[in-house]
Specification:
Helices cover 35% and strands 24% of the residues. The protein has 372 residues and is of the alpha+beta class. Keywords: Cell shape, Cell wall biogenesis/degradation, Hydrolase, Peptidoglycan synthesis, Signal.
């Protein structure tokens, strides 16, 4: 009833306006189609005019960049940005301060630009000092300690063929250094001495001290007594390996130790061997020298010992011949894995250029150079 009344009213309105119902319906459909086209056109315009989605830059580290990737979430295509490192990240490691650095020895300059904070070169025969740099300062000496260890073992005249066993007491729990000798490994005292001198084997040096009459405390006491007898007044030992930074000596003291140890052929031979094989408990192990110079044909080395711990830096003592002259070289607290070897080469070149007749003594203490 209501619908019929509305239809009659609508028809009357169309008649008054002069428009037929069919024309009105066509006009309505046209407007709807135009409206749809307008909406679609606006959407296209917006899509074309809208700028591409910018990658988020907020809080972006200079070492990072954003990579655009396409992902599908619940079946719908999505554009995502992923942070990636623009360059490999290297952790910043602060430089290790050695005992020499903390004492200010790194401020001492020298004409050879040595990388060692301490250096000393003396003539073996005359004890004449040829080069000196901070040589009276007592510093940690690391495995150079083993030179005194070998001297005490040799002078104790113990049975060198006696079998020694590596025990848990020989394991380094201070620096956590590695060793190729396992707990339970057995070697003769002679072999232990050989690899301790040549290859700085810590467990071998520990076993040597532990098997001294009275044990390690008596051995350390013998080390300090021997140092005093040699006039090494700036020297102090607390172990037989050098792993403790409390093992200290000055370059002048170490030069005396080198001269004393050189008197024993077994120490000369073992410290300068390039390679040596041992068989702990029947298993063959090949050891090599810790000093690459002993295998070089350019060097004539009669005795040597290297050492390294963080507090000591790289250390080297040796007796060698240069231009026919036997000289003792001591380098302590050197920076860089091969810096002590490089310093030895620079020193040899300088001594060769000076010549035995025109040699100038260089004495550096606290940054002041005295020549005479």
């Amino acid at each position: 009833m209501l619908k019929s009344a509305l239809a009659v009213v609508t028809t009357l309105l169309f008649v008054v306006a002069g428009i037929s119902p069919a024309q009105a319906q066509t006009s309505a459909n046209t407007k709807k189609t135009a409206a749809k086209k307008t909406v679609v056109k606006k959407a296209v315009v917006r899509r074309q005019a809208a700028p591409k989605r910018a990658a988020p830059q907020a809080s972006l580290d200079h070492r990072e960049k954003l990579v655009k990737k396409v992902a599908y979430v619940h079946g719908k295509r999505r554009v995502v940005y992923q942070r990636v490192s623009a360059m490999p990240t290297v952790p910043v490691v602060p430089p290790v301060m050695t005992a020499g650095d903390m004492a200010g020895l790194n401020l001492t300059q020298d004409p050879l630009a040595l990388r060692s904070n301490v250096a000393l070169v003396i003539d073996q025969a005359s004890s004449q000092v040829l080069f000196e740099k901070n040589s009276s300062v007592a510093l940690p000496i690391a495995s150079v300690t083993k030179l005194m260890t070998s001297l005490v073992v040799v002078e104790a005249r113990q049975n060198m063929e006696e079998t020694l066993t590596v025990t848990d007491d020989d394991v380094d729990r201070q620096k956590h250094s590695s060793s190729r000798l396992r707990v339970g490994a057995q070697l003769s005292r002679d072999d232990m001495l050989h690899i301790a001198l040549m290859s700085s084997e810590n467990r071998a040096a520990s076993a040597l001290g532990r098997n001294y009459p009275g044990g390690l405390p008596a051995f350390v006491a013998a080390m300090n007594a021997k140092a005093r007898s040699l006039g090494m007044m700036d020297t102090h030992y607390v172990d037989s390996t050098g792993l403790s930074s409390n093992n200290v000596a000055s370059a002048r003291d170490l030069a005396k130790l080198v001269v004393a140890a050189y008197n024993y052929p077994v120490i000369r031979q073992y410290s300068t061997d390039a390679k040596y094989m041992v068989e702990p408990s029947g298993h063959a192990l090949q050891y090599a020298s810790s000093n690459r110079l002993v295998a070089s044909k350019d060097w004539d080395i009669g005795l040597q010992k290297t050492g390294y711990i963080n507090e000591a830096g790289h250390c080297l003592v040796m007796l060698t011949k240069i231009e026919g002259r036997s000289v003792v070289m001591v380098f302590l607290d050197s920076k860089g894995k091969l810096s002590h070897v490089g310093d030895a080469a620079r020193m040899r070149k300088w001594l060769s250029e000076q010549g035995p007749q025109n040699l100038t003594r260089v004495n550096l203490r606290g940054g002041r150079a005295d020549e005479g």
